[in-house]
């Protein structure tokens, strides 16, 4: 219990004690007054009358102090409840304002900074993933955009995201890939997932996977599932697995975003892996987007 709550509780208890003493004194005064003013004939007592007199004198005093004791206990409980409520509020405020490492600039921010020669203010962190309705509206707008020819190397650079505002090749690749509706969907879904995981201090650069054979990636792109493609779940970091599993279980926004990303990344592999050589597939498997796919796919059971 906090110091303020203790002081408040002691003050209430002292006030209740004073009230009990005052009520007891008033009752005893009334009893004495009754005995002093009662006629002599009524003051004569037998055994039963004497017992009734004693009980009539003591019982109200017992009831007074029983009520005082209950009121004091109630005051303590109220003070503890108020103190607990205050502590919970402080914990929520601390969690909301707790300092975190500066977030990685989003791809769109990097592109804008690369295109604008004027100095810019620091870019705010990317907000929570767009609601499903907004994503559907955006998908409708993207479907009306003509496709753009993006080669495998450009797509791989875009899927790894720029390392910073100075990573001009990756920014150019991302700018080009985002002009294609299908690539834009998978890139934005990957960005949402990577950003949400970074909010839990899980960074894809810190999660190197056990490399899966290129043949396994090709079998997965051809639609094979089960134990044959299990090596794709090559991220075994226990902390990352526990945190991601917890997010999938309790966070509806993260769960919807993760499944949205898994679907689009799966479709992207089906479309593009047949046109990539083995070296490109191996590099693709090391991108940040692919690591997020391997982490989420392992927990979601995508790989069997």
Describe this structure in words.
This protein has 304 residues and is mainly α. The protein folds into two domains: 3-97; 107-300, no CATH class. Helix content is 69%, strand content 0%. It is built from 13 helices and no strands. It has helices at residues 3-37, 40-43, 47-97, 107-115, 132-143, 152-160, 168-177, 181-198, 214-221, 238-250, 252-272, 278-284, 288-300. Helix 8 (181-198) packs across helix 11 (252-272) and helix 11 crosses helix 13 (288-300). The longest helix has 51 residues, at 47-97. It is rod-shaped and about 120 Å long. Mean pLDDT is 76; it is low at 98-103, 112-129 and 139-143.
Essential attributes:
single chain; 69% helix; mainly alpha; 2 domains; 304 residues
Task: Provide a brief overview of the structure.
With 304 residues, the chain is mostly helical. 69% of the residues lie in helices and 0% in strands.
